[in-house]
Design a protein that fits this description.
Elements (H helix, E strand, L loop, with lengths): L7 H13 L3 E6 L17 E7 L8 H11 L1 H5 L4 E7 L8
Parallel strand pairs: 2-3
Antiparallel strand pairs: 1-2
Length: about 100
């Protein structure tokens, strides 16, 4: 019996949940918006937008938050994700839907 590979959205969600225990998390596959552009592949799963709110981000700069997320997803970034837009906030901060 063949096991179906886990979708990249699910892998991202699982890794961010395990690492950051977020109060809220949304991972949006925007690959369809990039058809014909650099990095797009048939089947998508190349361009993502992340909205995440976590207590762990308290006191961190935007750059520090992005670095932590990029480190957490380093295998996925090296293995096929072409673009990752990150919206990271601590609870109570505005700007993350």
């Amino acid at each position: 019996m063949l096991m179906r590979a886990m979708r990249t959205t699910d892998v991202i969600t699982n890794k961010l949940t395990a690492t950051f225990a977020p109060q809220s998390l949304s991972v949006v596959d925007e690959s369809h918006q990039h058809e014909g552009h650099a990095g797009h592949r048939p089947g998508g799963q190349t361009h993502f937008r992340i909205y995440i709110v976590s207590e762990l981000f308290k006191g961190m700069t935007r750059l520090e938050r992005h670095r932590l997320i990029n480190q957490t997803l380093s295998a996925e970034l090296a293995g096929g994700i072409h673009a990752l837009a990150i919206h990271a906030a601590a609870p109570g901060e505005g700007g993350v839907a």
